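Quick one, T. Sequence first:
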Amino acid sequence: MERRYLLDASALIALIRNEPGAERVKEVLDSSQIHALNLAEVVRKMISKRMPPAEVRNLLEDLHLTVVEQLGLEQAYAAGQLAAERRDLGLSLGDAVCLTAAKAMDMTAITADRSWSGLGEVQVLMVR
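Structure tokens:
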């Protein structure tokens, strides 16, 4: 199956917490990947909401996500630059990694973060 979408942490959290946008994420989940950095953001968020670490791991493993584990030198520079130059959108480093990875892999970034609609250089699917 072709993986066409790259999940941002906000999209996966919307799915896990059954927030608005969860249904849209479910629709594309089988065609999606997530960058390891964005997965780490999800883990941090769920544990900070008092979910036990073992439960977080089990929940995420049950989703059978394909995880992008590479962050090359060029993407590191591109993500750092994007995060610095688009502070006006409130982009975190994790957001910038998702966006630059999606661009490099010719994928659509999927997010629940509405501020990403101001980006023209990367295809973005808003789930809410």
